[in-house]
Amino acid sequence: MLPKQEVVAMLLAGGQGSRLGVLTKDIAKPAVPFGGKYRIIDFPLSNCVNSGVETVGVLTQYQPLELNEYIGSGQPWDLDSMNGGVHVLSPYEKRKNTDWYKGTANAITQNIPFIDRYNPDYVLVLSGDHIYKMDYSKMIAFHKEKEAAVTIAVQQVPMAEASRFGILNTNEDDSIYEFDEKPAKPKNDLANMGIYVFSWDKLRKFLLADEEDPMSSNDFGKNVLPAMLNAGERMYAYRFNGYWKDVGTIDSLWESNMDILDPNVPLDLSDPDWRIYSRNPVMPPHYIAKGAHVQNSTVAEGCNVYGNLEFSVLFAGVYVAPGAEVYSSIIMPGARIEEGARVQYAIVAENAVVGAGAVVGQKPEDVENKDEWGVAVVGPGCKAPPGGSVAPKEMLDAEEAGK
Amino acid sequence: MMRGNEVIGILFAYVHEERVRELTENRVMASIPYGGRYRLVDFALSNLVNSGVNKVGVITEQNYQSLMDHLGSGKTWNLSRKREGLFLLPPFGAEISRTDGLISSLASIHRFLKNSKEEYVLISNCDTVSNIDYRDVFRFHSEKNADITVIYRHGTSPDTDKNVVYTVDPEGYVLDILIKRGSDQNCNYGIGKCIIRRQKLMDLVDDCMSRNLYDFDRDIMQRNLKDMKIYGYEYTGAAYTISSFKDYFEANMALMDPKVRTQLFPAEHPIYTKVRDDMPAKYGLGSSVENSIVADGCVIDGEVENCVLFRGVRVKKGAKLRNCVIMQDCVIGEGTKLEYVVADKNVEFDMNRNMSGSSSYPVYVAKGSRV
């Protein structure tokens, strides 16, 4: 038996993230680069460590290679400890009833033996596609105070946008009486952030019951939480006021990256008391050349910038040639922007190349039909040919381009 | 070939620190910050590790706290291992009789050397920034069947006392060794790195100790020149030996040259250093940065030209920096103008200060000062 851990975190990292298109073709969504040097999973992992939660199971299923490699021993997050630490949990063959993770709840059910080893009081369920800094220990304290079976983190959203979210209808004491998934006529403005604290004995019971139900899709939102509500369990909404963004789509991923350039957005990545840890590339500091022009941008190590850069995020080892222009764009690790190329409102993925004179994306003001405008994407390892162009909303795929 | 279990690395963390008094007041030579995010020891260690050496002893003398903090378990250099790894060797027992201290230091690690199984020892100072593949040197050493192979550079030797200057024949055989002041004339000067058989080194050190001889270059190298096969290996890649404060400044400025950066930081032989987990550098609206090296965590709202900015430097609006080396976590206040300034860690410049040195004499601002 391992030493008891009061809290075990389970991070759902198995989804395909199909709305990110080429960006998640070969990697799981939590491994998608974010913010100049991070990957999305750095945020929940760092939050765990900073909150004192040092036992984390990462549930992987879709394209886990790069994510597994990235997590490794967990050392960058101080999660390579003896008693807890980070564990990558993939579906595995059992004597009977072997299956993939059929749903979010099933992923946890299949790992009940992992959780039981630590004999925890609480299980924290997190998703791997959100950017936020949150002290889970406060949420757990709230959960204890309310003597709840489950506590769900919520964020207040503008009423007009509430119908895009999973809304929780609450009583005055923030106890939950109804789940309202993307309601046409929202009654409340508290959106479910996908962060749950469960009392383990309760969750364990409901997971096993859910597993017995052949009609269930084994999903937290659709099955387990409503079942708990119907059974009259104490369920509370925990209000969170900081920055939080779901980066599940190209647009939201792009926006969230732009947010780190905005001094008015409360997402300080340089807070010594709440570091966001990541696996650092081994590269020298970056170089800004004579004649380069860099405005309101963030640049990671190993970059060489000779051209113009405005409102952009450069990841490690990016090269921007003389005369190239990068505007309101995200350039992921190892990408090259060749001479005279123009990249605007675009995401250029890892190791992609934008050839000399190529034009990627457009400013919204230059597009007549606003419906045609969107962020352009050059896929991982893809080459936008010299002089060519990638239209707004277009996604350049390495395999497609090869044909 | 050079296998891990054939060679141990011995690094002298302190050698030549008297040459850069400003920077070594509170630290050893090996932990002098360099190039925006490194310390000098990173180059010495990474070169060894990249060449396949997996056992390294670091000999320290005093003021080695910052070095211990930096090295930790050696994990960064992949030297935190069950088998072999990193060994910090602080002074032990006997007092150190100075001339250069090397022989006494080596004598004090007698047991470490004796208990090692590796056939060879690669000895190196930490005052040279370079990216040497020691496997090439080792191959040369084996081919020549040498007793000792020293690594040298050709050119004008550093402007200090006690440069070791070699006369070599076309095969690399060392005919003569002189110890003299640096000069403008081209010569083959040593950069404090050599390969020697472990047993041979121990014998030579024992011999010197019993004769009260304490100077490595004089009493081991010169004295035995006729009895040993000493060969010189010329290293022609980028290398900067820090023998004065001016050298230090210039070695930093050299990084603006893309050719130097490619030679010092090739992707296949990376230079490892302790990570800090800071955000990428941020450039504000209205900032202007040209020809500069900038590390993670910097926030720049002013003007920067020809500078090396270490991690976490803040340059406020209206500040102007030209030809400066600004170390970790310095803050440059609004409207402050600096030229040819080397600011050590955590220096704070208030608003509207002016300070300038010259290219031949950069101004040094001590660690933690407030200007």
Topology of helices and strands:
The complex is a heterodimer of chains A (403) and B (371).
Chain A: E1 7-12, E2 33-34, E3 38-39, H1 42-50, E4 55-59, H2 65-71, E5 85-89, H3 104-109, H4 112-116, E6 122-127, E7 130-132, H5 136-146, E8 150-156, E9 166-170, E10 176-181, E11 190-199, H6 200-212, H7 220-230, E12 235-239, E13 244-246, H8 250-259, E14 286-288, E15 293-295, E16 297-299, E17 304-305, E18 308-310, E19 313-314, E20 319-320, E21 325-327, E22 330-331, E23 336-337, E24 342-344, E25 346-348, E26 353-354, E27 359-360, E28 376-378, E29 383-384, E30 389-390, E31 395-396, H9 398-402
Parallel strand pairs in A: 1-4, 1-6, 4-5, 8-12, 14-17, 15-18, 16-19, 17-20, 18-21, 19-22, 20-23, 21-24, 22-25, 23-26, 24-27, 25-28, 26-29, 27-30, 28-31
Antiparallel strand pairs in A: 2-3, 6-11, 7-13, 8-11, 9-10
Chain B: E1 7-12, H1 21-24, E2 33-34, E3 38-39, H2 40-50, E4 55-59, H3 65-71, E5 85-89, H4 102-108, H5 110-115, E6 120-125, E7 128-130, H6 134-144, E8 148-156, E9 163-168, E10 174-180, E11 186-197, H7 198-210, H8 216-222, E12 230-234, E13 239-241, H9 245-253, H10 258-264, E14 281-283, E15 288-290, E16 292-294, E17 299-300, E18 303-305, E19 308-309, E20 314-315, E21 320-322, E22 325-326, E23 331-332, E24 337-339, E25 341-343, E26 348-349, E27 354-356, E28 363-365
Parallel strand pairs in B: 1-4, 1-6, 4-5, 8-12, 14-17, 15-18, 16-19, 17-20, 18-21, 19-22, 20-23, 21-24, 22-25, 23-26, 24-27, 25-28
Antiparallel strand pairs in B: 2-3, 6-11, 7-13, 8-11, 9-10, 9-11
Indicate the low-confidence ranges of chain A by residue numbers: none
Span between termini of chain A: 55 Å
Number of helices of chain A: 9
Q: What's the average pLDDT of chain A?
A: 91
Mean pLDDT across the residues of chain B is 90
- β-strand percent of chain A reads 25-35%
Poorly predicted residue ranges of chain B: none
Number of helices of chain B: 10
Supply Rg of chain A: 22 Å
What is Rg of chain B?
21 Å
Q: Based on CA inertia axes, which overall geometry of chain A fits?
A: globular
The secondary structure category of chain A is alpha/beta
